[in-house]
# Entry
Amino acid sequence: MAWKVDPNEAEERDHPTFDGVRIKVLYSREEHGAAATIVLSRVPAGVAIPEHVHEGSDDILHVLRGRATMEIRSSDGAETFPLVPGLVVRVPMNTPHRVFDVADELEIFDVFAPAAF
# Structure
């Protein structure tokens, strides 16, 4: 059982869906039997993450570094706000959201609960 993981030793790989985005899977249901998926995501300046939903998981993001803009849509309308270091965002499951205008490379500690994979 993996009680701890060093992000510096985790393998960085291409995001399976979003071109230009790189991820390090720290914990997952498939690889570790974890109840949540935890990923470090790196989004280079100029790259956007198009609108998408997570059908079975909330998405909780903690911005570690960088600057960008995020939009979250709900039945109440859309909210657009800056992503800056220290910000924590919860996107409920099945909620459309996107990241764009990445001015400085983003590094995001991303938790999907329950586990996305």
